[in-house]
Structure formats: C-alpha cells, structure tokens
Amino acid sequence: MNFSELASQPHRRFNPLTREWVLVSPHRTQRPWQGQVESVPTEAPATYDPNCYLCPGNARAAGTKNPAYAETFVFDNDFAALKPDTPADEIQEEELLVARSEAGRCRVVCFSPRHDLAMARMSVPELRHVVDAWVREFSELASDPHIRAVQIFENRGAMMGCSNPHPHGQIWANETLPNELAKELAAFRDYRQSHSTTLLNDYLKLELEKQERLVCANDHFVLLVPFWAVWPFETLLVSRRCVSALDELNDEERTTLAEILRQATIRYDNLFRTSFPYTMGFHQRPTDGKDYPEFHLHAHFYPPLLRSATIKKFMVGYEMLAMPQRDITAETAALWLRDVPARHYLDP
Ligand code: H2U
Ligand code: ZN
After folding, report:
1. Which end of the chain is more exposed for a tag (fewer CB within 10 A), N or C?
2. What percent of the chain has pLDDT over 90?
C-alpha cells in the first residue's frame, strides 16, 4: 500500500519527539456537528484599555503600577505558580505517596504596549523586541543554578484560557524538567546515540524533500504541520541550524524568527478570518549548564479550532482514556495553511 492509500484509511502515526502514537481517522471529517458552537468576538479591542492590568501606566491586580513602557515589558507574575524561596522538602511513603517541593520563577511578557495587537498584527521590528526579551529572560533564568528548565509560552484567545486580549506570554522556570521536555530530551538523546545525526535535522531534511507538509519558510526557519500532529492545525516551527536554545541564535536568525512568527500567526488568522486562538511555546535545552548537542530548538503551535472559527476540538473520551485522535490529515491541514494569503486579512 502506498502512503496516499494508507492516509485515506484509519491509521496510527508515530511521534518521534514524544514516542507516542496518534490515531488518524480522515473519513470522520464528514460527520455532522450539533455540539457546542463558540462565539467569535466581533468588537476589536481599543489600543488602550484603562481597565487592563497589562497596559502601560495601569495598576496590576496586586496593586503594582506598570511603567509607561514603549516596546516589551517583563515582570514577575503576581500570582506565580512557582516561587524562588520555596523550601526544599519531600515525602515518600512506599512508592505510592511521593511529593517533592519545586522552586522556580514565573514571568509575564507584555509583547507590545498596544492593547489591540497580536503577533499577527505586529511588525517584524516589534516582534524582534519580543524575541530579544525571550532571549534575555532565557539567559538570565538559565544562569540561576536552581533553574533547570525554562518554558516560554503564549496562550492566545479566551478559548485557550488566555485571561486578557492584551498581547502577552508567560515564562515558567523550574528546578526539574517538566514532563514534555523530559520526553523530548530522552528521544533526542537516544536518536543521537543510534544515529550520528540529530532527530530534528533528519526530520527537517525529509520534510523539505517531500514538501507536502510545509506551510512556509525563510532562510533560517521552517514552519510545517508535523506528520504526527494531534491538534487540527497544529504546526512545528524548526530552526534550520541545530541550535539548542534561543540564546544561540545570531542577529539575523532572531530577525527571521520574528518574521516567521508573524507569518505563522497571519496564516492562522487568515484561515478562518478570526483572531486565531492557540497555545504556543518553545522547547529548549535544559539549563543545568551542561551541553545538549542533541537538542534542537523548536516551537509548537497547538490551536483548538477544528473546521471553522466556531467549532473547536475537544480532547475528551478516547483522547483522555486511550490516545490522541485527529480527523483532518496533516497533509490537508498543511495545504490549507499554505494556500491562505501571506498578508493579514485586516491589513489595508
Ligand atoms: P494568561 O493570560 O496566559 O493567563 O497570562 C496572564 C498571567 O498574568 C497570569 O499567569 C498574571 C496571571 O497570574 N497576572 C499578573 O501577574 N498580574 C496581574 O495583575 C494580572 C495577571
Ligand atoms: Zn492592555
């Protein structure tokens, strides 16, 4: 059987980064939908909102006043999930009741002083400030001997639990490796041991040959729908050069990262002509001071929308109890994202 025949039938695909499988059921895209329909915000936010806790000059929920910032602004999360002064402690009863203290830091990154913008509506120089802020934060947090992992991410849109339309992301830094990073690190390490190359270098080479899952690319980054995608329009953003974290990107690469982030988010917005919700974030090397030549910097975009701006994918039932499942194939999703204009639908 060839690939297109297999891809038209129910099948499983392997995710070499997590070493888990996803069930793909392409025929199910035909099924009717009588479930929940999401509402699409129709009113555009104002450029400044006096009630927004992230806008310049405003007071945050805990009372601290934001400075009149002009580019990006980073602060310690007032409701941090991880705190630097957490005392070390642990319990263990048999192998069943096990808990350990976890210290860390949480930061909030305001991408822009403009309340109404999103990555898709920011210019490349503006997004470059965001990239530079991420690099600065990563380096500073990585230099703390207690911090071994830095998770940079953005929740965009109320559907993904974003608490405020003001463009912002978060950084959580902790003492131990979070589950997803640990899974990927083990896969990167094993691949490098059994091949002389690195996992994402080889994968990128294959995708560049095959072309069918590519969305867009520039000199230093490629955006594609991974073969093993779970979310309907999930994408993977990979650096062409194998670097282990944002701090290794040179000046030109940082600008091209800003460019491809803009392209990625414009394409998402254009797909259903809406401010596309997603969770996105970077996976980078652990920050314990060791070298990780096997680790390849990348970002994942996980958007929940299924086939219009109002229908969302739920991860329930089979996904919660068995394994992730998707209907639209990675190849079809890539085609849709590749075919939308590269210019934002709201831009004049
Ligand atoms: P989300 O929209 O992804 O939830 O991120 C907003 C973060 O901002 C959230 O973690 C923090 C919340 O704790 N926050 C502050 O630190 N100060 C505030 O005044 C409100 C929100
Ligand atoms: Zn605001």
Report:
1. C
2. 84
| Residue 130 reports pLDDT greater than 70 | yes
**Three-state secondary structure call for residue 251:** helix
The Cα 233–Cα 336 span in angstroms is 9
Residues 156-215: pLDDT tens digits? 988 777 778 999 999 999 999 999 999 999 999 999 999 989 999 999 999 999 999 999
How far is the centre of ligand 2, averaged over its atoms, from the C-alpha of 169 (Å)?
A: 13
Q: Write out the two tokens for 207.
A: 């995708």
Hey, which of 75, 79, 115, 160 would you mutate to test ligand 1's pocket, going by the most ligand atoms within 8 Å of its Cβ? 79
pLDDT at 41: 67
Question: Does ligand 1 lie within 6 Å of residue 61's CB atom?
Answer: yes
The tokens 């129910």 sit on which residue? 10
| Residue of the CA atom closest to atom 20 of ligand 1 | 61
- 15 CB neighbour count, 10 Å cutoff: 18
Q: For residue 224, which amino acid is it?
A: L
Whether 258 lines ligand 1, by a CB cut-off of 6 Å, is no
pLDDT at 11: 95
pLDDT the model gives residue 33: 59
* Ligand 1 binding pocket includes 78 (Cβ within 6 Å): yes
Q: Closest-lying ligand to the alpha carbon of 49? A: 2
Catalytic residues: 168
Cβ–ligand 1 distance for 108 under 6 Å, the answer: yes
Ligand nearest to the CA of 74: 1
Question: Residue 234 and residue 212: Cα distance in Å, rounded?
Answer: 15
Of the candidates 3, 124, 110, the residue with the CA atom closest to the CA atom of residue 53: 110
Ligand 1 atom 11: residue of nearest CA:
77
